[in-house]
Amino acid sequence: MISVAEARARILAGFAALPAETVALPDALGRVLAEPVTARLTQPPFDAAAMDGWAVRAADIAGATSDRPVALRRIGESAAGHAFSGSVGVGEAVRIFTGAPVPTGADAVVMQEDCSADDASVLIGRAVVAGRFVRPAGFDFPQGRELLPKGRRLTARDIALAAGGNVPWLSVHRRPRVAVLATGDEIALPGDPLGPSQIVSTNALGLCALVATQGGTAHNLGIARDTVDSVAAMAAGAAGCDLLVTTGGAAQGDYDLVRDVLADRGVSLDVHSIAMRPGKAVMFGRAGTVPLLGLPGNPVSTGVTAVLFLRPILRVLQGLPPDDGEGPRRARLGTALKANDRREDYIRATLTTGDDGIPTATPFDRQDSAITSLYAQADCLIVRAPQAPAAEAGAVVDIVPLSGGALNL
Ligand SMILES: Nc1nc2c(c(=O)[nH]1)N[C@H]1C(S)=C(S)[C@@H](COP(=O)(O)OP(=O)(O)OC[C@H]3O[C@@H](n4cnc5c(N)ncnc54)[C@H](O)[C@@H]3O)O[C@H]1N2
Ligand code: MOO
């Protein structure tokens, strides 16, 4: 058995960022930039009014108050999308609306609440400094400014920013293509009629969904039967994918065939047994040209090992660092834990936040790797190092949050 850290290092050494492709901005949410996004225009492109009111020369109204307003001659109007073409001279004002270009000659905007107007003139009831309620050209960013760096996973806000920079398409890493293969004579698809000793496959659909949350495209290859030929034939469907993930058939039993199939094909496994619980039976190697990650069949083992090994692979393939660094990584224990043995434990737990704002992770009583109902409820995994001594309630522990994904505000 090797440690989790060594297994991760060996597995991730086999992956690098996928090539770039160009996508239209509406399709870029959750994708990772292969090139920085640079502004193609200056924003705002002109000096723009920040309020509805009157564009004036500040010097003209220096002494204006509500009791002693200053009268200016109104000479036109500037609306958003319809600039005033003339220029504002001494003693003149232009009616202006939010977002409209401030005419040349004017250097400030007075809110309409401080003014009263008739057809020919306007009374300005407040003095303002030059620049008041004017957003100068380039106030947000100038043309040529880097708006978003290479390697950024695009959020909803980033899409709006790129649109503001007049960038209609951008360069992102190709989505990882991941083939998913379930194995086992006992496995049936949800909705299929079940034989007397059959169970429904949870793992493949869960893995496909996890791939989607991480920005990849999953190809569900179906269910291989417990024969070498069936596993080999169905695994061949992964040709052209960036990764084949199998579930089940990874342990030592007479019908655990994924290993045999790999061995038959001369596949050397870089990883085949990891000192962790759940998930000891993880394999990593290469099936032909396609890297293969073999995950154990117990559903929670599949889920936990996918979080620990598949998620970072998908991130690296998209040009991201292996870990997201999001969310809390430490919490206080809600209940005491016994000393650990030689396997690193990933304990399913809930997270609550106390009055002091510090999260508390409370393990479920039952930790069997077949209990999917509790895994779905878990907020995090508590990480217990091999041989960790007993820990009291309140002790600070490392956690892996079970949250995050490709879509972000
Ligand atoms: N003698 C030993 N037996 C086992 C060991 C061991 O080290 N020595 N390890 C145990 C551990 S830990 C795990 S985890 C499992 C891993 O076994 P496999 O990866 O070979 O998985 P299977 O035997 O095929 O299945 C295990 C379990 O999971 C169910 N399963 C499988 N696929 C699915 C699926 N797609 N959806 C839902 N459930 C699935 C399967 O029916 C079994 O109940 O081995 C232990 N045994
Ligand atoms: O891999 Mo097993 O995961 O310890 O149930």
Automatic annotation (TrEMBL):
Q: Specify the pathway.
A: Cofactor biosynthesis; molybdopterin biosynthesis
Q: Name one GO cellular component term.
A: cytosol
Main EC class of this protein? transferase
Give the EC number(s) listed in the UniProt record: 2.10.1.1
InterPro entries the UniProt entry points to: MoaB/Mog-like_dom_sf (IPR036425), MoaB/Mog_dom (IPR001453), MoeA-like (IPR038987), MoeA_C_domain_IV (IPR005111), MoeA_C_domain_IV_sf (IPR036688), MoeA_linker/N (IPR005110), MoeA_linker/N_sf (IPR036135)
The MoaB/Mog domain is annotated at 179-316
> Which UniProt keyword terms apply here?
Magnesium, Metal-binding, Molybdenum, Molybdenum cofactor biosynthesis, Transferase
Show the Pfam families listed in the entry: MoCF_biosynth (PF00994), MoeA_C (PF03454), MoeA_N (PF03453)
**Known SMART domains for this protein?**
MoCF_biosynth
For this protein, the record's Gene3D superfamilies field holds: MoaB/Mog-like domain, MoeA, C-terminal, domain IV, Molybdopterin biosynthesis moea protein, domain 2, Molybdopterin biosynthesis moea protein, domain 3
Needed co-factor(s): Mg(2+)
Q: Which reaction does it catalyse?
A: adenylyl-molybdopterin + molybdate = Mo-molybdopterin + AMP + H(+)
Could you confirm whether the keyword Metal-binding appears in this record? yes
Q: Which GO terms describe its biological process?
A: Mo-molybdopterin cofactor biosynthetic process
GO MF terms held by the record = metal ion binding; molybdopterin molybdotransferase activity
What this chain does, per the entry, is described as:
Catalyzes the insertion of molybdate into adenylated molybdopterin with the concomitant release of AMP.
Regarding protein family, the annotation reads: Belongs to the MoeA family.
Q: What is this protein called?
A: Molybdopterin molybdenumtransferase
Species of the source: Azospirillum doebereinerae
